[in-house]
User: Which sequence fits this backbone?
């Protein structure tokens, strides 16, 4: 039986959820027979650290005494903005010996400062993605995905994306069924694929300032199967189609058509994940008209057909041990 050690790096100003979220995932998986994760935390000198919200975390030991782990996890937090040079040096020297190097949120800044992201594709929290790309031009920064895998390197977006990535690593190590069950116990989705954008349609769009346009946004979200043509939406907003299309894009940052596409895709994903409705029924409920139209939308955005998406991301029952 192969044991996979996971070492989580602690430092002052670390974000607590970046630490506890992934640890809950690995610890949850370790409750199953034949799943062997050895979880440890370490700070530079083994001393307690204070998180960005004021919690005190007591590490298991010091980084100086830590053996090379299978998975080295570097969380983010305020402490990554002006990192301790000694921590950066430790990462530069010791992190390459890990079989898998993982960052959560702004932990990517520490890896970049240590030169560990040079020549690699990586992501981070959208707020600092531009800073990462500008400060470390040797890094290929992709600000959109929830997480990015590049060889033994894995980087994730903001905060809860570390849970998504950790679930993907559990699936890689011990199979989909165990990862799905851990996700269900944590009441989170295993099903967000790594290439899914960090935001939903509602979050990527601005909220329109004018009430008629805001009402149209809510209408689209609540009724994805309805006629959502520009003409129909313009009539609802009591504007001409041309005026409506211009105003909607100006106030939300997206064209009406693009907004409708994203809402329909998200609704279709939820139905495939959470119901037993057939693909044709889902396509009709989401306004695609035909299963083929929905299939094209899925392949274009998610790189997989609806039936395959359901097979991969719909939970299946697994017997757990306590």
Assistant:
């Amino acid at each position: 039986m192969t044991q996979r050690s996971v070492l989580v790096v602690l430092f002052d100003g670390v974000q607590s959820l970046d630490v506890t979220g992934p640890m809950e995932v690995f610890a949850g998986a370790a409750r199953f027979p034949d799943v062997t994760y050895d979880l440890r935390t370490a700070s530079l000198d083994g001393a307690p650290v204070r998180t960005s919200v004021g919690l005190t975390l007591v590490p298991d030991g010091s980084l100086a005494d830590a053996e090379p782990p299978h998975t080295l996890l570097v969380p983010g937090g305020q402490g990554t903005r002006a990192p301790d040079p000694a921590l950066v040096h430790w990462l530069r020297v010791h992190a390459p010996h890990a079989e898998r190097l993982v960052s959560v949120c702004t932990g990517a800044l520490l890896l970049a400062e240590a030169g560990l992201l040079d020549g690699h594709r990586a992501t981070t929290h959208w707020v600092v993605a531009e800073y990462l790309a500008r400060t470390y031009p040797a890094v290929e920064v992709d600000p959109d995905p929830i997480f990015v895998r590049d060889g033994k390197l894995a980087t994730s977006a903001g905060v809860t994306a570390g849970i998504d990535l950790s679930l993907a690593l559990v699936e890689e190590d011990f199979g989909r069924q165990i990862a799905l069950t851990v996700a269900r116990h944590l009441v989170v989705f295993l099903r967000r694929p790594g290439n899914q954008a960090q935001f939903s349609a509602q979050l990527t769009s601005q909220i329109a300032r004018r009430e008629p346009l805001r009402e149209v946004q809510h209408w689209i979200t609540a009724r994805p199967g309805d006629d959502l043509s520009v003409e129909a939406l313009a009539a609802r907003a009591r504007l001409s189609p041309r005026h409506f299309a211009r105003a909607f894009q100006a106030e939300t940052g997206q064209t009406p058509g693009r907004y409708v596409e994203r809402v329909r895709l998200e609704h279709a994903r939820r139905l495939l994940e959470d119901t037993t409705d057939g693909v044709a029924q889902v396509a009709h409920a989401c306004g695609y008209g035909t299963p083929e139209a929905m299939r094209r939308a899925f392949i274009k955005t998610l790189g997989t057909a609806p039936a395959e998406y359901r097979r991969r991301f719909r939970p299946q029952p697994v017997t757990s041990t306590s």
